[in-house]
Design a protein that fits this description.
The protein is α+β, with helices and mostly antiparallel strands. The protein has 26 helices and 25 strands. It has a domain of 129 residues. A hairpin with a 2-residue loop joins strand 21 and strand 22. The longest helix is centred in the N-terminal third of the chain and has 33 residues. The termini are far apart.
Length: 772
C-alpha cells in the first residue's frame, strides 16, 4: 500500500512538474525574437533595432519614416497589449475585452466620441505625418504577426489582438488628454454645483488663492481672506464624515538653468513626470538614429509613449526638453436654456458577446450632461480638430530653444509647461499644446450668450513664453506659472496648491552653481516644509494631555520634518491633516453626494479655507457632538491614528506606522489586482515609500515620478534617465523588471543606451528578394 501511495505521489508530482514546464514552454513562445533578420515592404532601406541591458530600443535607419517603422516594431514586440489598452481606454472599447464590468467606464469615455474624432483628424494630417503614422502602424502589425503565440493577456481574456491603425496613435494621445485634463472637466462642474447649492460666497471661500505661489515673474494673486459663510444647522446635522478623495497631482516637476549657473558652463534641465503607475510603466526607453534629408544626422534619445512614433521627453544633442501639465483652463460647461436644440447620437459598445447602445445627447456646444434639472454642454479643447496632431515628432531636428518655442505653438498635445535647454547655454519656457483662443475662462458654467464659438474653433498661438530669464532659473510644478494678468486670460484648470513649486523655487535660489548630482538631489527632496505648520498644530493639541498622548507626542516631535521611510511622526501629521479636512468639510461633501458631485476635484484648494476655520473657530461649522474646535481636532487625530493602526498594525503599535510602510511603493500589473495569485509573477517588488505630495519627491502607493530625467544638451553621456520599471510587458523577458531596482533605491541610470546585447535586422523586401 505504501509503495502504491509512493508511486501515486511520484506520478502526481511528475504530472504537476510537466504541467508547469509545459505552461512555461507555451508561455515562452510569446516572447519576441530579438535576434533575427526579416524583410518588410514598408521600408526603403535597412533598419536595425538593437537592445541594451535595459532593453532600450536602439533604432538605426536611413530616414525618419524607416526609423518610425523600427520603433513601431519594437513597441509591437514589447508593449502591444498596453498599447491596445491605451487606445481602447480613449475610445471607450474596454468592455469588448473585459465585459460588462468595464461598461460604465466605456460610457464615460464614449461621451467624448474620441474614436470618431481621431478618424476625422487623421484625414487632415500632412502627407508626411500621415505616412509616418501608417509606416509606424505597419511596424507594429508586422511585430504582432511575427508572434508565435499571443501574449498571456489575450490568452487569459480570450480576446483577439486587432491590428494597429494610424488613428490609434491619435487615440493614445487622447488617452493622455483624459488623464491630464480629466480633473479640469470635473472641477468646473463641481464648482457650478457648489455655487448653486451654497451660494457664490461659499464657492469663493473654497477656492481662494493660497500663499504658496511660484509664478515665474513672482506675481501674487491677492490674498484677501474670503468671509467664512455660515453653515445651516440642517447641513451640519445631516453630515456624514467620509473620505473626500484626494486628486492625484498628475503633472510633474521640471526646472532648468542657463549656462550661467552650471558648474561646467552648460544649460541644464530636470524633468520628472508624475503619473499613476502600472506594470509595465507607461514610458519606453528609445534612441532613434537616422538622416534628415540626407543632410543632418539625427540622434534623439529619451522615452517614447508606446502607440506613438515620437520621443516625448529627451534630447537630440542640440536641444533637450521636458514637460509638466500646465493646468490652464481648457474646458467650459455651458448651461443650456430650453430653446437650445439638441439631438441624440448612438454609440455602439461591443461586449465579448453582443453589444449595447449608448445614447449621447448632443448640442451646438458639445455633448450634454444632466445635473439635477439643468442640462450642461461641454466645450473642451479635446473635442476640437486641433487637439491632436503629430507635430511632436518635429522636436527630433530642432537645433535651438528658439526653434522649440516656435514649434510649441503648433503641437497637438494636452497643453504642457515645456522647458527647453540647448547646447548654446539657453533655457526657455512656454506652454506647448492645444489651447483655445477664447478670452473668458470661467470656474463655473457659463450661459449660451457668453460662449465664444469662433474663438473655441481657433487655437491660441500667442501663449506667453520666457527665454533666458534674468535670474537664470525656470521652474514649474503644476501650479500657476504665468503672471496674474495672463492668468485672467488663461484661467485655472485645477492648479496644484503651489507648495511643491515653491519648494523647488526656493531650492534653486539656495545656490549659484549646479551640477547634475545637485539636480538629482532636488528631485529626491522629501523635506516636509509644507506640513511644518500642521506638525506644530498637532503637537500643540496633543500636549494638552501629555500623559494620554505621551507616545504620540514623542513620535510627532521627532518626525524628522521629512517624508522619510522611518518617520512615524510624518505619517501621523500627514493623516491628521487629511482627516481634519474631511471632517470639517463633511457637511458640504454630504450634500454634494446627493447630486453625484464631490469636493474631490477642488480638495487641493481647501488649504486656505481649513486654516481660516482653525483660526476663527466658527460655531456654525462645529459638529454638535463637539463642544470646541480643540475637541474636533483631537478627535480627528484619534480617528486618523486608529484607522491607520487597524490597517497597518496587528498589535496596535505606533511603531508600525512608519511612513515607508504606510506609503509603500506597489507597482502592479492590472491583472494581478483581479487575480492576486499572479502578483509574484507580474508585479514589481514592493519597496519602502519615499516622498509624498507637496514636495519635489512626489510618491504615493502607485503614483509618482514616472521617470527621472536630468540632461545638459550636448553632454548626454552624463545625463540621467531613471524609470520605475522595465521595457517589456512579458513577465519572462529579461527586460520586464530591468531598471526598477535603480529607481527604487534612488540610483541614477544613464540616459544613453549601453552596449547592444541583441540586434534585429530588417531588410526591404526588394533587397531580400535579390539576396535570395
Amino acid at each position: 500500500m505504501h509503495k502504491i501511495i509512493k508511486i501515486a505521489l511520484i506520478v502526481t508530482s511528475s504530472l504537476a512538474v510537466m504541467t508547469v514546464a509545459g505552461s512555461y514552454w507555451a508561455f515562452s513562445l510569446s516572447l519576441p525574437d530579438l535576434d533575427k533578420t526579416i524583410s518588410s515592404e514598408s521600408i526603403s532601406n535597412k533598419v536595425s533595432v538593437g537592445r541594451d541591458r535595459l532593453g532600450t530600443a536602439i533604432v538605426h535607419a536611413d530616414n525618419r519614416q524607416d526609423a518610425a517603422y523600427g520603433l513601431g516594431y519594437a513597441h509591437g514586440q514589447d508593449r502591444f497589449f498596453q498599447m491596445d489598452l491605451l487606445r481602447r481606454n480613449a475610445a471607450g472599447e474596454l468592455a469588448e475585452i473585459f465585459g460588462e464590468k468595464a461598461l460604465n467606464l466605456d460610457k464615460r469615455r464614449r461621451f467624448h466620441q474620441l474614436r470618431k474624432r481621431a478618424n476625422q483628424i487623421v484625414e487632415t494630417l500632412t502627407p508626411q505625418h500621415l505616412s509616418l503614422l501608417t509606416i509606424y502602424a505597419n511596424g507594429v502589425n508586422d511585430a504582432l504577426a511575427a508572434q508565435r503565440l499571443s501574449s498571456f493577456e489575450y490568452i487569459l481574456t480570450g480576446a483577439e489582438p486587432k491590428p494597429w491603425q494610424a488613428a490609434d496613435s491619435l487615440l493614445v494621445i487622447f488617452s493622455m488628454y483624459l488623464d491630464l485634463q480629466g480633473n479640469t472637466i470635473k472641477r468646473d462642474l463641481a464648482l457650478t454645483q457648489i455655487e448653486q447649492l451654497f451660494g457664490q460666497p461659499m464657492r469663493r471661500f473654497l477656492t481662494q488663492p493660497s500663499h504658496y505661489q511660484a509664478a515665474l515673474d513672482s506675481s501674487l494673486i491677492a490674498l484677501d481672506s474670503a468671509a467664512i459663510p455660515p453653515l445651516s444647522p440642517m447641513l451640519l446635522s445631516q453630515a456624514i464624515d467620509s473620505m473626500i478623495e484626494e486628486p492625484l497631482e498628475i503633472g510633474s516637476n521640471n526646472w532648468a538653468i542657463t549656462a550661467a549657473l552650471s558648474d561646467n558652463g552648460k544649460a541644464m534641465l530636470s524633468d520628472d513626470m508624475h503619473l499613476s503607475f502600472a506594470v509595465p510603466i507607461i514610458w519606453y526607453r528609445a534612441q532613434l538614429n537616422y538622416s534628415l534629408n540626407q543632410k543632418q544626422n539625427v540622434q534623439i534619445t529619451g522615452v517614447s509613449l508606446p502607440g506613438a512614433p515620437a520621443i516625448v521627453v529627451g534630447s537630440n544633442g542640440n536641444v533637450a526638453w521636458g514637460f509638466t501639465n500646465a493646468y490652464i483652463d481648457t474646458a467650459d460647461w455651458i448651461a443650456l436654456d430650453k430653446k437650445t436644440p439638441t439631438y441624440i447620437e448612438n454609440e455602439r459598445i461591443a461586449l465579448p458577446e453582443g453589444e449595447v447602445m449608448f445614447e449621447i445627447e448632443m448640442s451646438p456646444y458639445g455633448p450634454v450632461k444632466q445635473l439635477g434639472e439643468q442640462r450642461y454642454a461641454l466645450s473642451w479643447v479635446g473635442h476640437q480638430p486641433y487637439a491632436v496632431d503629430m507635430q511632436l515628432v518635429e522636436l527630433d531636428s530642432i537645433t535651438s530653444v528658439e526653434e522649440g518655442l516656435e514649434l510649441a505653438s503648433t503641437m497637438g498635445i494636452p497643453v504642457q509647461n515645456m522647458l527647453l535647454v540647448d547646447d548654446s547655454g539657453n533655457a526657455a519656457w512656454k506652454p506647448a499644446g492645444a489651447f483655445p483662443s477664447r478670452t473668458n475662462p470661467s470656474d463655473i458654467a457659463i450661459s449660451t450668450k457668453e460662449y465664444q464659438p469662433v474663438n473655441w474653433q481657433k487655437r491660441n498661438q500667442q501663449l506667453p513664453q520666457v527665454l533666458n530669464p534674468e535670474q537664470h532659473r525656470l521652474w514649474s510644478g503644476n501650479s500657476r506659472v504665468v503672471s496674474v494678468q495672463e492668468h485672467q486670460i488663461l484661467g485655472d484648470g485645477g492648479y496644484a496648491l503651489g507648495a511643491r513649486s515653491t519648494q523647488i523655487k526656493d531650492r534653486l535660489f539656495e545656490s549659484d552653481s549646479f551640477a547634475v548630482d545637485d539636480f538629482y538631489r532636488l528631485q529626491l527632496d522629501n523635506q516636509a516644509r509644507f506640513l511644518q505648520s500642521w506638525q506644530s498644530l498637532l503637537l500643540n493639541h496633543l500636549e494638552r494631555d501629555p500623559k494620554l498622548y505621551a507616545a504620540d507626542i514623542e513620535y510627532v516631535k521627532n518626525w524628522q520634518a521629512c517624508a522619510c521611510a522611518d518617520s512615524v511622526g510624518y505619517t501621523l501629521v500627514r493623516h491628521f491633516r487629511t482627516q481634519l479636512i474631511d471632517s470639517a468639510f463633511a457637511p458640504l461633501e454630504t450634500e454634494l453626494a446627493n447630486y453625484n458631485q464631490s469636493l474631490a476635484p477642488i480638495k487641493r484648494n481647501l488649504e486656505p479655507g481649513i486654516w481660516q476655520l482653525i483660526e476663527n473657530e466658527p460655531e456654525s461649522w462645529l459638529p454638535s457632538e463637539y463642544q470646541t474646535w480643540a475637541e474636533l481636532m483631537l478627535a480627528s487625530y484619534v480617528k486618523s491614528r486608529d484607522t491607520l493602526l487597524a490597517k497597518y498594525s496587528e498589535q496596535g503599535h505606533l511603531a508600525d506606522l512608519a511612513w515607508g510602510k504606510v506609503n509603500q511603493l506597489k507597482i502592479q500589473h492590472p491583472f494581478s489586482k483581479q487575480i492576486p495569485v499572479l502578483s509574484q509573477l507580474l508585479d514589481m517588488p514592493v519597496v519602502e515609500g519615499f516622498g509624498d505630495s507637496f514636495m519635489p519627491a512626489v510618491q504615493g502607493a502607485s503614483f509618482g515620478a514616472s521617470q527621472r530625467f536630468i540632461v545638459q544638451a550636448g553632454d548626454e553621456i552624463n545625463a540621467i534617465m531613471t524609470v520605475p520599471g522595465g521595457q517589456s510587458g512579458h513577465p519572462l523577458s529579461a527586460f520586464y523588471r530591468a531598471g526598477f531596482e535603480e529607481y527604487a533605491t534612488q540610483q541614477s541610470t544613464p540616459l544613453l543606451p549601453g552596449d547592444m546585447t541583441h540586434q534585429l535586422q530588417i531588410l526591404p523586401s526588394s533587397v531580400s528578394s535579390v539576396n535570395q
